[in-house]
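Deliverable D5.2: sample structural annotation.
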Amino acid sequence: MEACAFEDTGKRLLSYFYSDSGSLATLKESSEKIILCNGLYDTKCESFDGDETVAIAETNVRHVKACMSINEQGRPTIIAGYRSSSVEILETSGWQNSSSHPAGKIQYHTCTSVPNGIVTVGGYVSGTGYLKNVYLFRNGQWSIVGQMQNYQRYATVIAYDKFFIVFGGWSNDSVERAEWDGNNVTSTQVINNHDDWIGDCYNPIVFETAPDQCKEFCTENFCYDV
């Protein structure tokens, strides 16, 4: 995005990437570098720094409709998917298995980094149904740390020190704010609802701008002062 407009950079990834089935995360040490894993057709992953894309180690299993975030050690961590409950962490030696997600083969969930861990929000598990649960992955262990008011699937979450905001995706037009004390969700509230047409927006794109910038993106339903 340049001057509040999206432009084609002309850069291309090595493999096709489908946002509804693949996973990606931005490395903490470089806001320009991302890790992407396909998941849909294979276990291939790559890194992209805005200029160059490089093939990296493949995951051990296919993580379809999973999510990825950065753990407390700064390592990309890919979480579950409809084919597997496994959690893998990208170490210098490649993707290494960690504790599986306690919900099982969870899909449609979203995740984000919080201080000293990763939270996953919502999702779907066959035989269980859609979830409101918030799970915390810290020091290689999982725990349930709260619930949202609405079922969340294909949502997007953005985190701050003391709260995070979940932007509803598929079949959910709510925007929920969850207060976070560092260990648990202490309260939640619905702060807005999108128009009906955006209720099926898979993995909505959320970005931050300086105050009063990019006003053409902003309407009553789409910009939030946090």
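Annotation notes: Residues 67-208 form a domain with the Neuraminidase fold (CATH 2.120.10.80). The chain has a mean pLDDT of 87.
The annotation will be released with the project's public dataset once the embargo ends.
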